[in-house]
Amino acid sequence: MKAGPMRASIPTLLAAVIGRDLRLALRHGADTLGSVLFFILAGALFPLALGPSPELLRRMAPGIVWVCALLAALLPLDRLFGSELEDGSLDQLMLSGLPPALVALAKMIAHWLTTGLPLLLAAAPLAIMLGLPLPVLPILLGGLALGTAILSLIGGMAASIVLGARRGGVLLPLLVLPLATPALIFGAAALDAAQTGLSWRPDLELLGAFLAGALPLCPLAAGAGLRAAVE
């Protein structure tokens, strides 16, 4: 008897889906570029509104950076699954052999690599422009690395829930923003504590605990949303 064709392993399929999304992002780089430009331009507007006082900008810098990062990460979410649903490739992904939760996880990882990582690179110059002290930049980047990963997980879950809805683009921010508020609070509080000489570790540990909770739960919920959308 002839042996049947060997099916690819789950890690191989997961890497293939991530690689596919990265290639698509490189081919259509407007979403990534738009998010980074929005992040920088939105942050640059605050000095115009608040005035040129270095002390005021330094005190407001943690909240400014985190709010701008949260809003910038929202921009490409409405197309995270929507384009695949429109052209039928989402059905192929669901038939690829990956569980729906892992399909969603692969898309979330690709979203972080194409949106969260560029925002991390853009955060340092924006923070310096706002007068954030150089010694606290590692805390900013560490907190944003955790925070943008949380935003990708929560955003992917919300994008799958509103997939196919008539006004999904309007519902998406209404779902994401309340759920992402704890990450915003802990991330900005860690930076503020570092600037004032207090311990910043508890806030980053809470941010890490939030990520540890979101990592298994958000892909499961997103997988259920994808299954409902294709059925």
From TrEMBL:
<dbReference type="GO" id="GO:0005886">
    <property type="term" value="C:plasma membrane"/>
</dbReference>
<feature type="transmembrane region" description="Helical">
    <location>
        <begin position="140"/>
        <end position="163"/>
    </location>
</feature>
<keyword id="KW-0472">Membrane</keyword>
<feature type="transmembrane region" description="Helical">
    <location>
        <begin position="33"/>
        <end position="51"/>
    </location>
</feature>
<dbReference type="GO" id="GO:0015232">
    <property type="term" value="F:heme transmembrane transporter activity"/>
</dbReference>
<keyword id="KW-1133">Transmembrane helix</keyword>
<feature type="transmembrane region" description="Helical">
    <location>
        <begin position="117"/>
        <end position="134"/>
    </location>
</feature>
<dbReference type="Pfam" id="PF03379">
    <property type="entry name" value="CcmB"/>
</dbReference>
<feature type="transmembrane region" description="Helical">
    <location>
        <begin position="63"/>
        <end position="81"/>
    </location>
</feature>
<keyword id="KW-1003">Cell membrane</keyword>
<protein>
    <recommendedName>
        <fullName>Heme exporter protein B</fullName>
    </recommendedName>
</protein>
<feature type="transmembrane region" description="Helical">
    <location>
        <begin position="170"/>
        <end position="191"/>
    </location>
</feature>
<keyword id="KW-0201">Cytochrome c-type biogenesis</keyword>
<keyword id="KW-0997">Cell inner membrane</keyword>
<feature type="transmembrane region" description="Helical">
    <location>
        <begin position="206"/>
        <end position="230"/>
    </location>
</feature>
<comment type="function">
    <text>Required for the export of heme to the periplasm for the biogenesis of c-type cytochromes.</text>
</comment>
<comment type="similarity">
    <text>Belongs to the CcmB/CycW/HelB family.</text>
</comment>
<keyword id="KW-0812">Transmembrane</keyword>
<dbReference type="InterPro" id="IPR003544">
    <property type="entry name" value="Cyt_c_biogenesis_CcmB"/>
</dbReference>
<dbReference type="GO" id="GO:1903607">
    <property type="term" value="P:cytochrome c biosynthetic process"/>
</dbReference>
<dbReference type="GO" id="GO:0017004">
    <property type="term" value="P:cytochrome complex assembly"/>
</dbReference>
<keyword id="KW-0813">Transport</keyword>
<dbReference type="InterPro" id="IPR026031">
    <property type="entry name" value="Cyt_c_CcmB_bac"/>
</dbReference>
